[in-house]
């Protein structure tokens, strides 16, 4: 795609649109942060950065970009891991982080309306103060709600409650030509034509820019209890998960972890985990309105785990113990990142009964390729986070071994009837693996949808299927 080369005239026009020099960054005023996301392996500086405060400002910038054929990349907190917020074609970055207001809490319809720059942790805290609950719980709590919507973020509570898509009722969206439209609303049911809202969710900013979201809420569960269950081997731990699901108990979360990752987290946090003696663990959480209500569920699950060879059942029955477990789990990614010079992630999802096979395969790859690989993930929904670590490899060796490891793992995921991404998206980094995993007909439909929304291909170009 051929785009206009951004010049001084474009800068002056956009500066006039925004009418605030403090929110327009050009040339040497552009922070290095805008050239990459959290993973940091893909770098490209934009020509200009605009911090917007309203849908109207987004609309005006998009109209100018559309008329002049200038690429635009929307961005939130930059916590993504696939380069979706990196302006690989340069042009304009629209920074949404200052559109960060909670606009309305509707307790009658159980919805909250927010701007896209609201942080996940701020939204969770706000609704809980009103005895309400927003269940999507991806690990990065400083991510924006707009980013969560654009990647259809999942997280640890997906087993019981679902993913971000399940909690989006309505969206205000600025289209690539600058038009402001609304998809969905506060209604619970909607069979009025194609579900445009659901096309936007998970589209990684390639179809439109979310400027407002109406989110579904639930009553806040009054009680939560966690179980930490050590097993002699990962295989024994993972094979227990389908039995837990089949038992008709519905845990809020079912996570798997291994000793080496726990030790990384202990070193990173400077705090001891309640137990680090076993090779593998399941971490389960149950919630409800009383301890009695959830007692039967976790008793049944404890029995199943012991029958399958669990070494113990550790109850996190105090706030202190519960916090220590979940803080360690929440720190896994940062702990692994701190242990190496650079890393890349495989965010595959496989059928639940294939998790153990996928993890064991990644362990074998370490010796085969000669590179460190760490993993943890959501055993309850089959979403694995597998990290390939650079350590002290030269740049040439790193690229060579990383590509080999990635190719092998995505190939294995396909053999196990899995998918390229469980929750972090495709962005720029995972495009080759999406192309390998989907039929040409499906990719062509995706490109057709992109063209219908964005005939000039200016919005977040080079991402997903473009």
TrEMBL record:
Keyword NAD tagged: no
Boundaries of every FAD-binding PCMH-type domain copy: 42-220
InterPro entries, per the entry: FAD-bd_oxidored_4_C (IPR004113), FAD-bd_PCMH (IPR016166), FAD-bd_PCMH-like_sf (IPR036318), FAD-bd_PCMH_sub2 (IPR016169), FAD-linked_Oxase-like_C (IPR016164), FAD-linked_OxidoTrans_Type4 (IPR051914), Oxid_FAD_bind_N (IPR006094), Vanillyl_alc_oxidase_C-sub2 (IPR016171)
Name by which UniProt lists this protein: 2-hydroxy-acid oxidase
Keywords attached to this entry: FAD, Flavoprotein, Oxidoreductase
Cofactor: FAD
One Pfam family of this chain: FAD-oxidase_C
UniProt superkingdom: Bacteria
GO molecular function terms listed in the Swiss-Prot or TrEMBL record: FAD binding; oxidoreductase activity
């Amino acid at each position: 795609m051929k785009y206009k080369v951004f010049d001084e005239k474009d800068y002056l026009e956009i500066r006039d649109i925004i009418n605030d020099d403090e929110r327009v960054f050009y040339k040497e005023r552009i922070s290095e942060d805008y050239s990459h996301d959290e993973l940091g392996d893909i770098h490209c500086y934009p020509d200009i950065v605009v911090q917007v405060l309203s849908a109207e400002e987004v609309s005006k910038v998009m109209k100018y970009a559309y008329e002049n054929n200038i690429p635009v990349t929307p961005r939130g907190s930059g916590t993504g891991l696939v380069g979706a917020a990196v302006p690989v074609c340069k042009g304009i970055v629209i920074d949404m982080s200052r559109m960060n207001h909670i606009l309305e809490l509707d307790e009658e319809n159980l919805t909250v309306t927010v701007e896209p720059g609201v942080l996940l942790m701020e939204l969770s805290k706000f609704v809980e103060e009103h005895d309400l609950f927003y269940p999507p719980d991806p690990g990065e709590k400083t991510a924006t709600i707009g980013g969560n919507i654009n990647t259809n973020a999942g997280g640890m509570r997906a087993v019981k409650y679902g993913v971000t898509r399940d909690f989006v009722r309505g969206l205000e969206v600025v289209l690539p030509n600058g038009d402001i439209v609304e998809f969905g609303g506060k209604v619970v049911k909607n069979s009025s034509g194609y579900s445009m809202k659901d096309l936007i969710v998970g589209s990684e900013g390639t179809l439109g820019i979310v400027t407002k979201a109406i989110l579904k809420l639930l009553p806040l569960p009054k009680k939560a209890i966690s179980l930490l269950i050590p097993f002699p081997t990962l295989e024994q731990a993972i094979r227990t998960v389908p039995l837990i699901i089949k038992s008709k108990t519905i845990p809020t979360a079912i996570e798997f972890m291994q000793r080496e990752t726990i030790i990384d987290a202990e070193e990173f946090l400077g705090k001891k985990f309640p137990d680090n003696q076993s090779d593998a663990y399941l971490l389960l959480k149950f919630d409800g309105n009383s301890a009695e209500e959830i007692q039967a569920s976790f008793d049944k699950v404890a029995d199943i785990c012991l029958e399958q060879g669990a070494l113990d059942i550790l109850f996190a029955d105090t706030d202190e113990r519960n916090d220590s477990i979940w803080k360690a789990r929440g720190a896994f990614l940062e702990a692994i990142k701190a242990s190496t010079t650079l890393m890349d992630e495989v965010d595959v999802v496989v059928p639940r009964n294939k998790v153990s096979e996928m993890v064991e395969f990644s362990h074998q790859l370490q010796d085969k390729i000669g590179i460190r690989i760490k993993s943890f993930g959501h055993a309850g929904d089959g979403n694995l986070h597998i990290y390939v670590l650079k350590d002290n490899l030269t740049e040439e060796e790193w690229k060579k071994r990383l590509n080999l490891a990635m190719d092998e793992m995505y190939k294995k995921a396909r053999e196990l009837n899995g998918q390229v991404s469980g929750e972090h998206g495709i962005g720029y980094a995972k495009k080759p693996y999406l192309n390998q995993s989907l039929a040409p007909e499906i990719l062509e439909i995706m490109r057709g949808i992109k063209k219908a929304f964005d005939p000039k291909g200016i919005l977040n170009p080079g991402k997903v299927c473009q």
